[in-house]
# Entry
Amino acid sequence: MSLESKFKLSMPADVLRAKYEEERTKRIRPDGASQYQELKGRFADLDEDPYITEKIVRDPIVTEHEVVILGGGFGGLCQGAHLVKQGIEDFVIVERAGDFGGTWYWNRYPGCMCDVESYCYLPLLDDTGYVPSAKYAKAPEIFAYCQMLGRHFGLYDRALFQTQVTGAEWDEAAKRWIVTTDRGDRLAARYLIMAGGILHKAKLPGVPGIETYKGHAFHTSRWDYDYTGGSPDSFMDKLGDKKVGIVGTGATAIQAVPHLAEAAGHLYVFQRTPSAVGPRNNRDTDPEWAASLKPGWAFEREENFTANISGRMPEPDLIDDGWTHIHRRNGAERAECPEDLALARELADFERMEEVRAGIEEIVKDKATAEALKPWFGHMCKRPCFHDEYLPTFNRPNVTLVDTKGMGVDRISENGVVVEGKEYELDLLIFSTGFEVTTDYTRRMGFDPVGPGGLSFSQHIENGLETIHGLVGRKFPNLFTISTLQGGAMPNYVTCAHEDAINIAHILRWAIAKGATTVQPTQQAADAWAATIEGSLGPFIEYNARCTPSYFNNELGATDENGQPKTWMPRNSVYGGPCDEFLAFLREWRASNGEERDLEITTD
# Structure
């Protein structure tokens, strides 16, 4: 019995490979990630904060702190919480938005909720004693939880909201980072922590004519309820006579489309690449279950989720959702020898995606629409989506899927969107085109730190990062980052950010106790970590290279801001091994007092 025959496939594996390659090839663009543009210039108004009800008016601040944290999302919140837990009180959090929340401040579109179960997704539940109201909490609840964290750990008194950092420069004489802002502030920091997150800088497609559109438009992360009516929790009552178009069919659109379809006179969904959409099966939290939870329950559950997505198959599977089902069915149980494992994993991936396509065929009644919604790529080539209302939405008479067959829309006119020469007139155009993930880190942060000797952080990245665990680097003393640069990533990125924050707080407590003036990793430690990153990338690179273009593989093309080819450095990558391995590196390093071995300090 051949290995392939053990898997339920509708066509031979070779045929599937050819189909995947066909779909991949027609989506590759020479401009790669530079096909997207920033919300600036004539699009700057799309980047305004529509949620501020009152502009904070204050004088510039000139002050000095032990720590300055840049970013008030979960990374910055976790960092502040763990500084407090380590007894470090002298810090300030600088945040562009009007409140804490990061992603959950900006994303208030209808239907928005987490797609990793909230019992795992929300950090510090064991500290706050909070139990989410549902397996997948809605955005307003998550935003409220961010505010709870701010209150619980006394972070509001340390926050500078509605403040954009414009620069950070190392003062060699003072041994301080001098942080400047658009408010005229000058903050001197012994330690600077950049916690800008990975899903905060919205992007637009670089479609010809986009600047000519005369209808109403916004990005999903800047939802305009004044135009649509309603709220994140209520019906959009102003769209009943409107023709609405939404560009994009990723994780955001999956959640927003059903609500737009209910409200709009007609909804056009413009698709370049379909998502793999499986059932979510959301449900309210059982009060009896919540009352039975013991201290440490959230950490245990988070560990179980991480073990599942790392291929460990813990028993029991506490999460039992789409994410764990994907990773627990890796084909290993059907391989007869170690040499069969790689093929078994590929066949299991084929099998899972066959089920996704079969589910689409069963739910969507129009055959042409169902075919267009079928994804032809590996299950982890794009972020898997789970939703119970998205696919049935395409059975509504007021919903039209406009499939661009992988090419994207032709252009945008004064009146709407043009695909294959046909113009779709619109009253409202919504860009569900996501966030910058693989663009230059300093571009996403909005400034470029300048270290000793005038070396910019962007130059340091181009030359090859030298860090320990992606947290603190050489050549930039006392500068810490919570990011994917030489760091970790997983479906629940908050887990990585939280663990990063724990280690940074651990390092700072040690450094302060030592009376440190500067902190940076030894050259040996930085080289060893870079080698670990590079050594983890084989299967990771191989899998993503076969994928359709997405932010997972930098749209299969790395280019600079002028569209010129750019060399990708493996040592700057995310850790490519199992998720739990990265967390183990951090925890084992912390438990073994790795700071004494791998960090060098100077003292006054």
User: Anything to note?
Assistant: The CA atoms of residues 209 and 338 lie 54 Å apart. Residues 4-39+203-280+340-431 form a domain with the FAD/NAD(P)-binding domain fold (CATH 3.50.50.60).
